[in-house]
Design brief:
The complex is a heterodimer of chains A (250) and B (275).
Chain A lengths: L1 H15 L2 H19 L4 E3 L5 E3 H32 L1 H6 L5 H29 L9 H25 L3 H18 L11 H8 L2 H14 L6 H24 L5
Antiparallel strand pairs in A: 1-2
Chain B lengths: L17 H4 E12 L2 E12 L3 E5 L6 H9 L6 E6 L2 E2 L4 H7 E4 L11 H11 L6 H7 L15 H12 L6 E5 L7 H16 L3 E6 L2 H7 L2 E6 L2 E6 L1 H10 L13 H9 L11
Helix pairs in contact in B: 4-5, 4-6, 6-7
The chains are: A mainly alpha (250), B alpha/beta (275).
Chain lengths: 250, 275
């Protein structure tokens, strides 16, 4: 328990003591919102209702923030620890890998929550995106989904020997989610095969769930439960794989 | 050339007497990486309170041996026990008895020195007096610095402080003076002697012979995964002389290292600046 708390504490400290890392973590969704706000775009939301494009974009940007913090920061942060021998020191102690990894997961969940609140606040108050549903629900969904992305990140940490390998591996996982999860454009335009495959991506479930909650009126519908179940399955499978691929050293 | 046969002070196979007499005993240790055998059935035992040196060139198997004792590598065969406790039967229990200064290891980038020590202590499920540890290694005046801001010698001393968080009876130092200038090395030697005076047992690997001669009560000389000679440095030297060996060059009264120290090293331990 002491290792868990100490790891959580040191990861949170490491995060806020590196302001550039915080800024760059949040930069991507905010820059996307900034660029797209320059165009007078509209989009069709669930139920065929015409919406301001920012309304549709904000849930996607919250998903992007959650993924960036939960997935990429785990991959690069922990791979760096592995490559530089920080993890060797923990391995040489009686601490269990489980307690250490749980501390990492808990710290990233908190970081995801904080980062998503910032993204929501900037989207809402700077770019005038409207959330007609539950704002609290948006943040709660980001937190619930974080362990799935962290676990996928941990698979990459286990497989990559160094940061040079982690970069391309991260891209391999991240790019399909970025392109096909409905972050920027509706998935309605995708043809049969691609639509079927990409429907199962973890970020697709998260974006769909966030959009349902953001546009409100649907409560905890069966569709939302399906999205949550999809995220839970990803979390379980990724955790099982990450447990097998985990290595303390390069 | 051979300088005598190694005296293998291995404990009995059942390890019974090792429980009381030895801080560390290694018996018939083998470590294999595929076809390559890094350690070929070595045995030695370290008495409580002594500084025992593992000497040898790079690739001799010193670090592999130490990493097996630290629990970082699993032995292919053989037995290691610390204060009578088997590493195979109770790896976590053995780790609690060891303080390890590791080769190729770093600390968290954004934590202060005291926070690093508190974290390492948490890994041993204990608390430590971080300031007391920093005082022990002469770093108490810079508790808020980060490890990267320390000089090489200070970093090595800090790594030793981190190895002491659990107040271990056995301290493993893996080439602690590699890359240090002569003054920083002498500071480190002073610290190692202080650890011994506190009653700790120290296993030290080094490829500096003068360091071993200066610090170690006994040494084992390793090469290509085997121990070629073992004993007190003076006894090993005497053994060699008895074979008729004489140094080809006359022994100088001083070396360039002595010149360096006399020029720069007055008041050792003073004036060392962080990066």
């Amino acid at each position: 328990m002491r290792v868990f708390r100490a790891t959580l504490d040191n990861q949170i400290k490491s995060f806020y003591r590196d302001p550039q890392a915080v800024i760059w973590t949040l930069a991507m969704p905010l820059l996307i919102m900034l660029v797209l706000s320059l165009f007078n775009l509209h989009a069709v939301g669930p139920g065929g209702v015409k919406r301001n494009y920012m309304d549709l974009l904000l849930p996607g940007m919250i998903a992007l923030t959650a993924t960036n913090v939960g997935f990429n920061s785990v991959i690069f942060g922990i791979t760096r620890y592995k490559e530089r021998g920080v993890l060797r020191r923990i391995k040489a102690s009686p601490a269990s890998a489980m307690a250490f990894v749980n501390g990492i997961v808990a710290s990233r969940v908190l970081m995801v929550a904080g980062s998503c609140v910032i993204t929501w606040a900037i989207g809402r108050f700077v770019f005038q995106a409207h959330v007609t549903g539950s704002t609290l629900g948006l943040i709660a969904l980001s937190i619930i989904s974080a362990p799935a992305f962290i676990a996928i990140g941990m698979i990459v940490v286990g497989l990559a020997k160094n940061e040079d390998q982690a970069g391309p591996m991260s891209f391999l996982f991240f790019l399909p989610m970025l392109l096909f999860s409905g972050l920027f454009v509706s998935r309605a335009g995708l043809n049969g095969g691609v639509a079927w495959v990409t429907h199962g991506l973890p970020m697709t479930y998260l974006v769909d769930a966030l959009q349902r909650v953001s546009f409100g009126g649907q409560g905890f519908s069966s569709a939302l439960w399906t999205d949550l179940a999809g995220i839970a399955v990803w979390a379980l499978i990724a955790t099982a794989i990450a447990t097998r691929t985990w290595k303390w050293e390069s | 050339m051979s300088i005598g046969t190694a005296t293998l002070e291995a404990p009995s196979r059942n390890g019974m007497h090792a429980a009381t007499a030895y801080a560390l005993s290694v018996s018939q240790l083998v470590k294999r990486y595929g076809e390559f055998i890094a350690v070929k059935g070595i045995s030695f035992a370290v008495q409580q309170g002594e500084i025992f040196g593992l000497l040898g060139p790079n690739g001799a198997g010193k670090t592999t041996t130490i990493e097996v004792i630290e629990g970082l590598r699993e032995a292919t065969s053989g037995e290691v026990s610390v204060l009578g406790r088997s590493i195979t039967a109770d790896p976590r229990g053995v780790k609690r008895l060891i303080g390890a200064q590791l080769q190729h290891s770093d600390f968290f980038e954004h934590l202060r020195l005291t926070e690093q020590l508190d974290y390492v202590a948490a890994c041993y499920d204990t608390r430590c007096d971080a300031m007391a540890l920093l005082r022990e290694v002469d770093l108490a005046d810079r508790p808020k610095l980060r490890v990267q801001q320390l000089s090489g010698g200070q970093q090595q001393r800090f790594a030793i402080a981190a190895a002491l968080v659990n107040d271990p009876p056995l301290v493993l130092l893996d080439e602690p003076s590699t890359g240090l200038d002569p003054k920083a090395r002498i500071d480190l030697w002073r610290l190692i002697r202080r650890l011994q005076s506190e009653g700790r047992t120290i296993l030290l690997s080094t490829h500096y012979m003068e360091e071993a001669e200066e610090l170690c009560d006994r040494v084992a000389i390793m090469d290509q995964g085997t121990i070629g000679a073992m004993g007190a440095p003076a006894a090993l030297i005497q053994q060699l002389l008895e074979t008729g060996y004489r140094r080809p060059a006359p022994v100088r009264q001083a070396t360039l290292e002595d010149v360096f120290l006399s020029t720069t090293g007055h008041g050792f331990g003073e004036g060392e600046e962080e990066k």
